[in-house]
């Protein structure tokens, strides 16, 4: 009756029990008895976030790191099994030397996922790619790091990496290009808030998902045949060179022949409309079924020419989502341009769902709304969200021309 059945369970069974607990609770099992003192250090997954701290602990970033470093050192001293996952997502001030030592330790433990989330540091953490030797690593997320690769020939790459996310990092054009190329099975790439605006050269024949939200000088997306989802937000107004003759829309989006979902935001629309935008792309985006354009300036000729070119270049587009920027001014040239499109016999033959946000009952945005409604013969649903105030009454839609007899129009308000 006094037998400790749980403590005498096989290690693999105990491990499967402990892994179901939050790390904080798993660590607390060390006080049960001498048998349990180091059992938690054999866990294969370590998530160090706000949940691991005692409720009485302050938010002091140094104190929090001391708590984390004690956990790390205990694991280094006592663990013998594999460690597949490590995630640091707690606001703290890490010691770079210990962090680099920890990366080297993990890379010899069968590491599959390594995640560094937001932390505080007076200088960049030079991520030790030269110490990262795990051939099993599939997911890598870095924050606040300086990306420097070993000399040419010394860095073999990350042969199993399928997901890479870089947030608030310091990296140059050539280093980023090399890193992406050295991940031969990379499928997902996410880039946020680079420290400096660089020329993004993204080339990877296996890449399927790309999300960018940062400042950058220029972008090249050649040789990405499997790229199916692209989401790009340029954070600052682009620098447009007067002597540039190539249209950025043609040069960047025009090569995304396999893209199925495309999301473009704000200043990137200006970047795409840097010079003469064609009526439609030379090679149509036949696979594009979903298009989302955010913060469209309906009074900006660059935004409108890019928008219409994309619509005409996507014959199989089924879903369109447009949010209109709240600041707007009357522009007769843009008004005349959009009205002229209404008389060109346009037809969006595959469009089934349109979602608009920020549309008013007058002005260019309303003309755009009418254009889509009048030239989409298979349209099934069209929603219009107005920022604040009251929604547009349904009777205002009754007199509008519709190409589809079965379309349903929904009107509501939005605070986003």
Short structural summary:
This protein is α/β, with parallel strands linked by helices and 416 residues long.
CATH architecture of the domain at 264-416: Alpha-Beta Horseshoe
Arrangement of strands in the largest sheet: 1-2-3-5-7-8-10-12-13-14-15-16-17-18
Give helix % range. Answer: 10-25%
**CATH level 3 topology of the domain at 264-416:** Leucine-rich repeat, LRR (right-handed beta-alpha superhelix)
Q: Write down the overall geometry.
A: elongated
Largest sheet composition: 14 strands, parallel
The string of secondary-structure elements, in order, is HHEHEHEEEEEHEEEEEHEHEHEHEHEHE
Task: Say how many strands there are.
Answer: 18
What ranges have pLDDT less than 50 throughout 5 or more consecutive residues?
Answer: none
| Count of alpha and pi helical runs | 11
Structural class: alpha/beta
Distance between the termini: 62 Å
Q: Strand portion, in percent?
A: 15-25%
CATH C-level label of the domain at 264-416: Alpha Beta
CA radius of gyration: 27 Å
Mean pLDDT: 85
Domain F-box: 6-44
InterPro entries: F-box-like_dom_sf, F-box_AtFBL13-like, F-box_dom, LRR_dom_sf, LRR_FXL15/At3g58940/PEG3-like
Protein name: F-box domain-containing protein
Domain F-box/LRR-repeat protein 15/At3g58940/PEG3-like LRR: 99-322
Features of this protein?
single chain; 416 residues; Leucine-rich repeat, LRR (right-handed beta-alpha superhelix); 14-stranded parallel beta sheet; two-stranded parallel ribbon; 21% strand; elongated; F-box domain-containing protein; LRR_FXL15/At3g58940/PEG3-like; F-box-like_dom_sf; F-box_dom
């Amino acid at each position: 009756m006094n037998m400790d059945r749980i403590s005498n369970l096989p290690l693999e069974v105990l491990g499967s029990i402990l892994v179901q607990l939050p790390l904080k609770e798993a660590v607390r099992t060390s006080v049960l008895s001498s048998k349990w003192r180091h059992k938690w250090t054999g866990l294969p997954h370590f998530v160090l976030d706000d949940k691991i701290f005692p409720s009485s602990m302050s938010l002091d970033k140094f104190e929090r790191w001391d708590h984390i470093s004690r956990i790390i050192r205990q694991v280094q001293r006592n663990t013998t099994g594999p460690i597949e996952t490590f995630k640091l997502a707690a606001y703290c001030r890490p010691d770079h030397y210990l962090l680099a030592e920890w990366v080297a330790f993990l890379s010899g433990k069968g590491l599959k996922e390594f995640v560094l989330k937001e932390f505080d540091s007076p200088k960049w953490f030079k991520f030790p790619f030269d110490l990262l030797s795990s051939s099993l690593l599939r997911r890598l997320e870095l924050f606040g790091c300086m990306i420097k690769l070993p000399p040419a020939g010394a860095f073999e790459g990350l042969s199993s990496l399928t997901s890479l996310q870089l947030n608030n990092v310091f990296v140059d054009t050539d280093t980023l290009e090399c890193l992406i190329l050295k991940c031969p099975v990379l499928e997902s790439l996410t880039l946020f808030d680079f420290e400096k605006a660089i020329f993004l050269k993204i080339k990877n024949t296996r890449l399927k998902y790309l999300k960018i939200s940062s400042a950058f000088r220029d972008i090249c997306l050649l040789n990405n045949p499997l790229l199916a989802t692209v989401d790009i937000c340029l954070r600052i107004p682009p620098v447009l060179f007067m002597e540039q003759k190539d249209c950025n829309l043609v040069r960047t989006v025009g090569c995304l022949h396999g893209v199925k979902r495309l999301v473009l935001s704000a200043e990137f629309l200006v970047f795409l409309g840097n010079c003469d935008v064609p009526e439609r792309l030379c090679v149509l985006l036949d696979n594009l079924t979903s298009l989302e354009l955010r913060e469209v300036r309906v009074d900006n000729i660059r935004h409108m020419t890019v928008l219409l070119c994309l619509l005409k270049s996507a014959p199989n587009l089924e879903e369109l989502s447009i949010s209109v920027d709240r600041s707007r001014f009357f522009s007769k040239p843009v008004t005349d341009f959009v009205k002229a499109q209404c008389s060109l016999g346009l037809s969006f033959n595959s469009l089934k769902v349109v979602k608009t946000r920020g549309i008013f009952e007058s002005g260019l945005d309303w003309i755009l709304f009418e254009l889509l409604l009048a030239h989409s013969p298979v349209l099934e649903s069209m929603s219009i969200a107005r920022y604040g105030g009251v929604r547009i009454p349904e009777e205002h839609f009754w007199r509008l021309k519709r190409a589809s007899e079965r379309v349903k129009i929904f009107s509501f308000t939005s605070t986003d």
